[in-house]
Fold:
Amino acid sequence: MLFGTSVERYQLLPEEGFAFPELDRLMPALKNADALWMGRPNNPTGTLIPKQIIQELAGMFPHKWFIIDEAFIQFVDSWEEQSLLSEKPRPNILVVHSLTKFYALTGLRMGAVVGPAEIISRLRQAKEPWTVNGVAEKIAPLLLACTDYEQQTRSLVATECKRFFQRLEMTDRITPFPSTANFLLCRWHKTDDLDDLMRHLLSQGVYIRDCRNFPGLAHGFFRLGFRAPRENDLLLSLLASF
Structure:
């Protein structure tokens, strides 16, 4: 319960590659909800729900809120075309975006919510009196000069994601799931306990994100993030050696 509101989760299925469900499966759940909150790309699955589906749902349910978290959208190829940020605001769609993921500025707490003017005005009345801190205010303009970094980052992530997926898909110990973000959701099969793999990696100073605390991912799911190729090679070697 949050402020007197209950939260109902709609679980994506691993046997379907965590793909977004057909509308006829989702509509019954939406009929009894006030809002739909989702990530694009989703975390931790890395799946990207087409924006046309969200726009269609928003049109079908004009009195319900659609709150879309696009914190990882800049990792997506041609992200400007894929993002709802580039669309004309809809009356019932709010898009949340963070600059700290893509630019590796964890802790800076810099982001925004984009939506129709009248809704943003109402949100301003409910928020804290400040917008961003002084450090974030100084750093934000510098990001406008990061075009080379942005292109290199997307290229590197796309290359390493493809390489990881192909390498892991060749093993019978780990199942990777397709991703559009800078991380890859995987499932451990070699033993019955993911802790076996985590202990092996931790003994070598490597940590992966245990995803067993996510509803529906309790059995062997973990997430790994892409780093520089040399570090990724080390991780692939450690995964293969256990």
The chain has eight helices and eight strands. The chain has a mean pLDDT of 91. The chain has two domains: 14-144, 147-241. The first strand starts at residue 35 and ends at 39.
